[in-house]
Specification:
By secondary structure, the protein is an alpha+beta fold. Helices cover 45% and strands 14% of the residues. It has two domains: 36 residues, 3-Layer(aba) Sandwich (YefM-like fold); 33 residues.
């Protein structure tokens, strides 16, 4: 734990923040008040995922989606009429 006076904290804010990444920092004011500074990691979004390298073109992707949708439509239609597909 590192302790800074209020004046030191103002003058050396960048250093104080770097120190707070590693350990708790206390700032003391002249009147005796103390404040704790601690580093808080920014939460990551569940949608923040790395990209995937592929040779698929937009046309390939659209065709695959259309094909899967047409297969689903056939399956759904067969279930409605009590038929089974092989």
């Amino acid at each position: 734990m590192k302790v800074f006076t209020f004046s030191e904290a103002r003058q050396r804010l960048a250093e104080l923040l770097d120190t707070a990444r590693r350990e708790e920092v206390i700032i003391k004011r002249r009147g005796g008040d103390t404040f704790s500074v601690s580093y808080r990691k920014r939460p990551k979004s569940p949608f923040d995922v790395p990209g995937v390298q592929t040779n698929a073109t937009t046309k390939d992707i659209v065709e695959a989606i259309r094909e899967s949708r047409s297969r689903d439509a056939v399956r759904t239609d067969a279930r409605r009429h009590g038929k089974r597909r092989a």
